[in-house]
Amino acid sequence: MEAPNRNRSPQTDSSSPSALTDEREPPRGPLLQRRQQLTEALARSPYDLILYLERAVVHSDLAYPDLAAGDAYRALLLADEVRDESFEYHDQAKESLRGYRTAPCPEVLNHGSLVEDLDQIVDGQGVEAAGECNILANIASVRCFQILSLSLLLCGCLKSALEFCERGLKMVPHNRELHEIKDYIEQVARRRLRKGPDEPIEIHMLPDRGVVRREVYPWNTHEPDRFCADSLSFLNSKLAKIAPKCEVKVSSLPVLLDGASNTDQYDIIPTCNQLGLFAKQDIGPGEPVLEEYSLLTANNRHKESTCDACGTELPPLQSDSKAVSCPECHDTIFCDEFCFAKAQELYHPAVCEKDVDSIAKDPDPSVIDESLYLLLLARLLAMSTHQDIHPLEVPEIKYIWGDFVSVALNDVDGSITDEPPPEWTLPFSFKYNVETPLHILEKMDIDIYATLDRHDLWVFNTAYAKFRGTASARKNPRDGRPDVAAVHPFWCLANHDCNPNVTWEWGGRMLLWARETRVVGNQPGGIRAGEEILNHYCDVNLPVQQRREWAQGSLGGWCMCQRCREEAAAAVATAAGEPREEVNGNGAS
Ligand SMILES: C[S@@+](CC[C@H](N)C(=O)[O-])C[C@H]1O[C@@H](n2cnc3c(N)ncnc32)[C@H](O)[C@@H]1O
């Protein structure tokens, strides 16, 4: 069996054996233009499921299977709207389909054996009795199941892929393309689960977390040039209030590796430019460096004991407590009037009495991270809705680091392998990236179709990329589970070093202050004007190997700071029985 190719041309060659296979590599430029046209058409006609399906195919051809799945899922929801007149967008979705016919069928539905399966789709009733819109909706649903199952397979979400494939096969039990996709899912599942050809594969065993491209999408016009003079001057004007002795500047950082290497002893290692925080005046030992307040917080406990706005632990409710509950939705508690006023100003009215509070709360330990990132996304959506700005324009995330990979590196040929390509680094699942964010928006009474520009899947993915590079989480002291997370956009500009010159604590505010003494050699603390603020993302009291393993998650790679390199090189020299060399302050031996 041939592996299907993500890069299929928009002009589907339905005469090929399965029409899932087309080895041509379509050029990106025209596809990007076509994507733009379809996005504009969707802005004019937001309930048109055919346009969504067409854009799904283009996304698939551009090697964004996750975005293809997102579009196919929206088309599937619209097909449900067409069939059920009690649904909220029934009239609009049906009206949008009136411009299309079953013969000739829209090109995007004329795929493989789909039209041959029309008899199963109309259930033997004949086209007229079934109603043309309903038939189109049914054919479209099968097409959605095909795109969803193949795309999710390509992202590595095998369980969701198989579930959608099975749903399609329920509608058209003999559909050739769905059977092919099911075979592919089972082949990949067998390889990943190391199962023999005759061993059964149960759906609950299948992995459902994949990875997708982590990039500044070519059509993303919201991403600033973080290095340009305007951005730096904007950031520094804000920073002046919360860290008056600091400034944001370009910092040269070691390029992070995936794991241990033999470069620890090298005098020169590859570096890259990013942003960092620097002292612009001397800062004494123990002196405060930064105090930052952020409402971009999340709490995954159902009955939380933290302030809804800033995430601080609430004091026990006594008569002298300063805690305030929202007069409209009494369950939402703020630590004081200040937090309540800030919440009212920046996000709360968008979720007040909207029943979004129970979503993703008290998660299974295996999905704690996902739940916290999802709840950060929910907060971001509430902030952008209430402030009436695009989510990626919300100041709290606009300028932060997203650990993006270049589009060129991410672009792959798309044949099916056991795992998605290694350059794809953004964790992805159907539930947390596609389904639940839309569910949250619906609970907020937002029309997910009419607001596509703000709530497209690539917008959620971009926000997730930023959260994953910068959010901090706090563990609950009772059970050690992370239950509160936050993004502090200025604190997160400080880079990591295993010999930090600051330390931090997050209560209601993120506080950063200069260390009294440095970890290495008990040197006195304090930061000179011009020196970089060196934060710590891991426990710096651990030995080098453990430190590097811990920091790998939060830093995004193997720590190559001076201290790690010196300690690792010394350990290697000791193991080899070489005499120890003294190292000077800069680590050059
Ligand atoms: C929270 S951000 C820090 C600010 C970031 N440099 C920026 O430009 O906004 C974390 C990212 O900074 C980079 N980084 C921080 N400390 C580093 C270090 N010691 N070595 C290499 N990269 C570092 C890593 O790419 C990491 O994923």
From TrEMBL:
It comes from the Eukaryota. Residues 244-538 form the SET domain. The lineage of its organism: Eukaryota, Fungi, Dikarya, Ascomycota, Pezizomycotina. It comes from Thermothelomyces thermophilus (strain ATCC 42464 / BCRC 31852 / DSM 1799). Keywords: Metal-binding, Zinc, Zinc-finger. Residues 1-19 have a biased composition (Polar residues). GO terms for cellular component: nucleus. It holds the Pfam family SET. This is SET domain-containing protein. Coiled coil: none annotated. GO terms for molecular function: zinc ion binding. Residues 1-31 are annotated as: Disordered.
